[in-house]
Structure formats: C-alpha cells, structure tokens
Amino acid sequence: MLVPQNTALLLSRVLTCGLLVLGAVACAPAEKDNSGAELPSGVKAGEATSAEDFGGMEGLIEAAKAEGNLNVIALPPDWANYGAIIDAFSDKYGITVNSAQPEASSQAEIETANEQKGSTRAPDVFDLGQAVALANTSMFAPYKVATFDDIPAAFKDADGTWVNDYGGYVSIGFDSAKVPPVTAVDDLLKPEYEGMVALNGDPTQAGAAFSGVLMVALSQGGSVDDIAPGVEFFRKLNEAGNFLPVDPTPATIESGQTPVVIDWNYSNASETKDLATWQVVVPPENAVAGYYYQAINKDAPHPAAARLWQEFLYSDEGQNLFAQSGVRPVRADNMMIDGTLEESAAASMPIVDGAVTVPTPQQTQAASKYLADNWAAAVS
C-alpha cells in the first residue's frame, strides 16, 4: 500500500542511474498445469502461503525446478532491470522464464490472465500499477516471502495478497537536441513542443500514466483529491496539438518520434545510456511518487515457480538488482541499515527536497473513477 504525503519519507531517495538493458528469455511454456499439485504437507501448491508449506526453501526450490517454467507478463527487459532479474533467476534455478507481452499495460495483464485462465500459458505472476492492482485483488494468491517482516506494513497487504516491490518519481524526459529545455510543466503548452509530448500509456490502464496525470494536476493547482486540473491540462495540450498519442518506448525515443516523455524517473533515466542528449527532470514542486504491486496469480499454472520468483525478488539479491536500475526497492531502508544494500546503489540515491505526494488506495480509486469518466473525451 502506498503511503500518504506525510509518511512518504521512505520514498525520499530514488536512483536515477541508467537501466541495464538485457534480453528476456522467451520459450515455449510447459504443457502441465501444476496448480492442483498436492505437497507433502497436504497443502495444494496453488494454495501455499509460505515456503514452509513446501517443507522450507529447499522444498520450494525442488518443486519449482520440477515445474521448470515461469510465465511473466508486461516486464520489459529495460524496465526496473527486469532483463537482468529474469536472467539471474533463470540461471540460479535452471527455470525457463517465458516473458509475454513485455510492453503491455497493467490492465492488459489482468485481461490476459482472464482470457488464458486454465491454460499453461496464463501468467504466473503480476507486476501492476496501484489502481489496477487494488481493483483485482480477488485474482491474487496470498503468500509471505521469507523477508516479509522486513517490508514496512504500509507497503504490503497483511496476508501477503500483494506486496509493493519498487518505486520511483514521475519525471519529464526530453531530447535536448530536438526541443528546448523543459523546466516546468507549463512549458509543454508552448508552440515549440507541437506534436512532441507523450505520456507513457493510458491513465485509466497504466500506473505510470495515472501518476503522470496526477503530477500535472498538482502543477495546475489540483491535489491528490482533485485530479481534474490534470485532465484539463491534457485537454489544452491536445487542443494545442502538442499531445502525442503514442506510447513511448526506447525505439520511439531514440528515433526522435517521442522527444518529450512523461514517465517514471527510472524509465526515463534508462534512455541516458543510449541517447547522450536525453535529459530527465523531476519537477521538485510537484513531486509524485509511487510503488508497483507484485502478486501471484491464484490460478498460476506454475505455482511453485511463482512463489520462488517472489522469494527471489524480495531477497537481498533481487532487491539489489532492482536498485541497480534506477528504482527504489521496497526493502531499501532496512537494507541500508543492515549493510546489505550495495554501496554503489545507496550512493546513487538522490535527495528530492520538499513534500512528496503519494496517493492512498482510496484516493487512487476516486481519481481512477474520474479518469474513467473524463479522460477519453479530453484527449480524443
């Protein structure tokens, strides 16, 4: 669960270094659905709530290796270091990771899971924006990783139905070779940015886009309880011909198709590795932060592998891999205290001065309803 502004201290530091871009593994999924397999403990694999149900970590690893496959969805290899994370998990356990629809939105993850329910191709795990995650908790299987108690209560469901995994700030990235420097949100309405301003996704479906509209709303006098000024700004941006209805990707950025992008700081910062003229700014007076939600599909065809994936993501190894990419892993504070967060990662975390806005679940749900009712008309 994301914390409100007055308790957003945990998000005061976020990496802005470039992402490591590595290819995800994509192979044919296994033919057998193992969700109903019964463990020695008498618990079905698809209902296991901790590694103890498998007889401990060794039992979980053995069961996951026997399944041999893990289906993930909407995990671009250059997003949050998922390319390196997938490779590390696969190499460590000898499990094939089938990565589907890497550029899909959070809502598309849910739709695909529903369409493929009962199939061996269905997603085993989810990585979702807050609004979509909270609207679909009935699809998640409760599970507590070994480091569960090390995760602050504000960033997890008490039963482990979902757990935040990494976070960042909304930023504006721009190609300084193609557009004037962006110093404030209002700059984007200027004629110099005609047909150049892209938002990462549809805010009714994608967490990055939702947070982008919230950041813009704050810059226009709105608040976390009033996102309407953000929608109105995009209406003006669209009427001016400056809004570009193209989902940005590394390819569109590097080709010059999307020279201005509103997106998470870590995603925008990754482009600095391949494009020397790409610059990133986090509007300091309108800082918006957010975490993504990690969950297991309750109908996962590879339930043991799904749970082992969670254990890996929240282990010191997994959290450090996240940190290398420009995101802030959820266990960062405790890892800094106990010395397990890599020094290079800790040293790269910049300070964002001033208040940081993070919507509560209730605020997100209210804003999502407003967007559902008003966004399409504003940008059509």
Characterize the largest beta sheet: strand count, sense, and whether it forms a barrel. Answer: 7 strands, mixed
Choose one word for the global shape.
globular
Question: How many E-type strands?
Answer: 9
Give the end-to-end Cα distance, rounded to a whole number of Å. Answer: 33 Å
What structural class do helix, strand and pairing data support? Answer: alpha+beta
Can you write the helix and strand succession as a string?
HEHEHEHEEHHHEHEEHHEHHH
Helix content, binned percent: 25-40%
What is the percentage of strand-forming residues?
Answer: 5-15%
- Kindly report the average pLDDT value: 89
Query: Radius of gyration, Cα only, in angstroms?
Result: 20 Å
Continuous helix count: 13
Task: Furnish the topology, listing elements before pairings.
Blueprint: H1 57-67, E1 69-73, H2 82-93, E2 96-100, H3 106-115, E3 125-128, H4 130-134, E4 163-175, E5 197-199, H5 207-219, H6 228-239, H7 250-255, E6 260-264, H8 265-270, E7 278-281, E8 289-296, H9 303-313, H10 316-323, E9 328-329, H11 332-338, H12 343-347, H13 361-379
Parallel strand pairs: 1-2, 5-6
Antiparallel strand pairs: 3-8, 4-6, 4-7, 4-8, 4-9
Helix pairs in contact: 1-9, 5-6, 6-13
Provide structural commentary.
By secondary structure, the protein is α+β, with helices and mostly antiparallel strands. The protein contains 13 helices and 9 strands. The chain has helices spanning 57-67, 82-93, 106-115, 130-134, 207-219, 228-239, 250-255, 265-270, 303-313, 316-323, 332-338, 343-347, 361-379; strands spanning 69-73, 96-100, 125-128, 163-175, 197-199, 260-264, 278-281, 289-296, 328-329. Helix 1 (57-67) crosses helix 9 (303-313). The two termini are 33 Å apart.
